Amino acid sequence: MYIARQPIFREDKEVYGYELLFRGGKASKGFDGISATHATASVLTGLFESGLEKIVEDKKAFINFDEVLLKTDLPELIDKDRLVVEILETVVVDDGIKERIEDLSQKGYRIALDDFEDSYDTYPLVPIADIIKYDLVVTPLETIKTEVIKALKDNKILLAEKIETEGEFDQARKMGFKLFQGYFFSKPSIVGKKNRTKTTSKTQYLRLIQELQADEPSYQKLAEIVEKDVNLAYRLMRVISGRAGDDLVYSIKRALTYMGLKELERWIHVLMIQELGANKPKELMRLSLIRSKFSELVALTSNLKRIKHEAAMMGLFSTIDALLDMDMEEALLDIPLPGHVLDALIRKQGTLASLYELVEAYEHGDWLETASLSKNMGLDSENLYQKYLMSVEWARETMDLML
């Protein structure tokens, strides 16, 4: 079973919910007939087994339903305040389906129409729907202006799907869309424009990273760097306090030794990413953390086991171009990362390139590509969901420590 999630944002770029993406009966990019039913049933089962909060945290879960599953009691197994019932565009609407959806709506479930391209005036589920999703590839914004005006008058919540750029986000927002889905948030807004307000922080972190990569790193020198930045010292102490348990930590140097050099280097990278992304959507930081842990866990069970540390760094730094609004090569300038990491992030080649492709394919729910890449890497692809779930949980715990 594969389950991934794609964030759905509000206007302020805070996450409203996650659409759950899942594999059908075969490794496919989408649904293949009866497998849509099987896939949704598998997702619901998986959510109960692992806990809904572990995959969507405290947000709403958007789950696709076909006509077969709509006629079952499965939707009611999930709290109405957590589930958005997403009606697939392939559903044939008859009187029974319409009555069932009306029943769910009356019970308090939010109803969303997926990939809507029918007539707004005549489609029978429009009056019941709370959310209407427009795929901007299939229905570009300029082609649905009339429908948007009507929907807004009817107090419908409009969701723009497959937004790929900041410009598309702004255009949809100005038209009246309130929810937005796509990976626009993980791309640079203004390529090549340096954010000079973050230079000092970046320099401080680089001093730490360079000392950590010395032949014989010195805890004393590391402590001296940290002690000169009260903000950095506080944040590191918060992170380390969870490891120290009931032991009292009398000095920064003592605190650093609790982690060990490799783990300390990882946390310095994490804190650096957080600092650089202070004015970006929190989901971008969360995505970096998920990718970092997911890459590490996948590497551990593949032919990349020897470079699991580099794999984790690759995942963590995979969004730094968006954090700094630069192209990747410029963003990574002067950051002393291993050659494997630089090759994968800048040139999309080298030892870690396939892992990077796998992570992105899994995020986007491209299960055919996921299965193919997994096979080439000697992976048991059926175990990827557990690794992904562990990564989501680790990212949540990490962000809680850093707040």
Protein architecture, described:
It is a single chain. The chain is elongated. A hairpin with a 5-residue loop joins strand 1 (3-9) and strand 2. It has 19 helices and eight strands. The chain has 403 residues and is α/β, with parallel strands linked by helices. The chain folds into two domains: 3-182, Alpha-Beta Barrel (TIM Barrel); 196-402, Orthogonal Bundle (Hypothetical protein af1432), CATH 1.10.3210.10. InterPro entries: dGMP_Pdiesterase_EAL/HD-GYP, EAL_dom, EAL_sf, HDOD, RNase_Y/CdgJ.
Secondary-structure element order, N to C: EEHHEHEHEEHEHEHHHHHHHHHHHHH
What CATH calls the topology of the largest domain is Hypothetical protein af1432
- The proportion of residues forming helix, as a percent range, comes to 40-55%
Total separate domains: 2
The global form is elongated
Mean pLDDT: 85
Give me the side-by-side strand order of the main sheet. 1-2-3-4-5-6-7-8
CATH architecture classification name of the largest domain: Orthogonal Bundle
Q: How many extended strands?
A: 8
Amino-to-carboxy terminus distance:
33 Å
Q: What are the low-pLDDT stretches, counting only 5+ consecutive residues below 50? A: 25-34, 195-200
SS-based class: alpha/beta
How many helices? The count is 19
Task: Please state the CA-atom Rg, rounded to the nearest Å.
Answer: 23 Å
* Main sheet attributes: strand count, strand direction, barrel closure: 8 strands, mixed, barrel
Strand content: 5-15%
Pfam families: EAL (PF00563), HDOD (PF08668)
Domain HDOD: 198-383
Domain EAL: 1-202
Protein name: EAL and modified HD-GYP domain-containing signal transduction protein
